[in-house]
């Protein structure tokens, strides 16, 4: 019985995420909340972070991360879901959301790039207590084919490594 209640609550939460899809996403799909079918969490993640959400922001990426917990419950999906792969996809989409030309490596990245979706999402995840469970391995992230053009820039690689190192240090000091 408890399992059924949990499943029901999970389905309600998934519907809540679907109901809060940005209007730009609905417009790009030529639909409304009332007319669209119920989507599985994987589709909702894609809608939140995909090209149809041209105005995606840190809240959309945080919602995509939150939806990860429901991937196992997808439509009786018997296949194992690779949550880490989904996390990497979300991180890549988040990074690619902003332009990274003219990187100034002499400044503090948290100050200089605080306006980017990447840094705003990091700050939001940290304030929500989610950051430690969402952080990817920076080396694996840099090896992603989606980021191959960016990683060619040694300045971007430095920025990414410095950012993740600082986050790890911050998380270590707050956990002790």
TrEMBL record:
GO terms for biological process: poly(A)+ mRNA export from nucleus; protein import into nucleus; transcription-dependent tethering of RNA polymerase II gene DNA at nuclear periphery. Signal peptide: none annotated. Keywords: Nucleus, Transport. The keyword Cytoplasm does not apply. InterPro entries: Nup133-like. It comes from the Eukaryota. One of its GO terms (molecular function) is structural constituent of nuclear pore. GO terms for cellular component: nuclear pore outer ring. Coiled coil: none annotated. It is found in: Nucleus. PANTHER family: NUCLEAR PORE COMPLEX PROTEIN NUP133. This is Uncharacterized protein. It comes from Ciona savignyi (Pacific transparent sea squirt).
């Amino acid at each position: 019985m408890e399992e059924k209640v949990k499943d029901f609550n999970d389905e309600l939460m998934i519907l809540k995420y679907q109901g809060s899809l940005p209007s730009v996403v609905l417009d790009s799909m030529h639909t409304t909340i009332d007319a669209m079918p119920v989507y599985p969490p994987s589709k909702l993640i894609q809608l939140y972070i995909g090209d149809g959400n041209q105005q995606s922001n840190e809240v959309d990426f945080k919602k995509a991360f939150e939806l990860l917990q429901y991937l196992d419950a997808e439509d009786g999906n018997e296949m194992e879901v690779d949550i880490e792969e989904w996390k990497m996809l979300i991180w890549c989409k988040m990074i690619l959301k902003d332009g990274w030309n003219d990187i100034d490596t002499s400044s503090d990245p948290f100050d200089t790039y605080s306006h980017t979706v990447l840094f705003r999402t990091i700050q939001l995840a940290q304030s929500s207590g989610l950051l430690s469970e969402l952080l990817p391995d920076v080396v694996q992230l840099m090896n992603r084919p989606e980021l191959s053009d960016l990683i060619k820039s040694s300045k971007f690689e430095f920025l990414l490594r410095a950012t993740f190192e600082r986050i790890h240090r911050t998380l270590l000091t707050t956990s002790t």
